[in-house]
């Protein structure tokens, strides 16, 4: 979207420009607009209007985010943590997870196994190598049971 100059841009123009590229949570958009020195009241008014018009939706953002992170091989713990950092409330976060996991039939144990298999060819011969694989999966957001399952399958 082209406009005369950055100084003439309204919060709406900037927000729509951002949303044209990818989904954003309300909190992320508010942060970005605040960096452009817009008044908090103008930001809230703009975001309320965008939500009413269907241009911005935390529910849509959360579902899209969960899907993209699953495709990257990330686990529940990490995905939920990142959504919280992006300002998504617990209710929206839970609804997005339930929806995506049901629609995509996500098996977190198999996802952990596949993620580990893409990176490593064995479960590790030494305790040090095994710990490295455990840390890898833990950093990806998988829980202890999922990690144990993934290691037992290699």
TrEMBL record:
Classification via Pfam families: RecX_HTH1, RecX_HTH2, RecX_HTH3
Keywords assigned by UniProt, alphabetized: Cytoplasm
Residue span(s) of domain RecX second three-helical: 57-96
Record keyword Flavoprotein present: no
Record domain RecX first three-helical: where: 14-50
Cellular compartments annotated: Cytoplasm
Domain RecX third three-helical: 107-151
Annotated PANTHER family: REGULATORY PROTEIN RECX FAMILY PROTEIN (PTHR33602)
Family: Belongs to the RecX family.
Purpose of the protein: Modulates RecA activity.
Protein name: Regulatory protein RecX
Gene: recX
């Amino acid at each position: 979207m082209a406009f005369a100059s950055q100084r003439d841009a309204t919060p709406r123009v900037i927000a729509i420009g951002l949303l044209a590229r990818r989904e954003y949570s309300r909190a992320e958009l508010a942060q970005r607009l605040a960096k452009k020195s817009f008044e908090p009241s103008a930001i809230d008014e703009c975001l309320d209007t965008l939500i009413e018009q269907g241009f911005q939706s935390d529910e849509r953002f959360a579902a899209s985010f969960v899907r993209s992170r699953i495709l990257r091989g990330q686990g529940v713990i990490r995905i939920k943590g990142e959504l919280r950092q992006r300002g998504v409330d617990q209710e929206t976060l839970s609804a997005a997870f339930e929806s995506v996991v049901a629609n995509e039939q996500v098996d977190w144990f198999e996802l952990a196994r596949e993620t580990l298999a893409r990176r490593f060819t064995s479960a590790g011969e030494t305790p040090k190598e095994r710990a490295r694989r455990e840390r890898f999966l833990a950093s990806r957001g998988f829980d202890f049971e999922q990690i144990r399952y993934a290691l037992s399958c290699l």
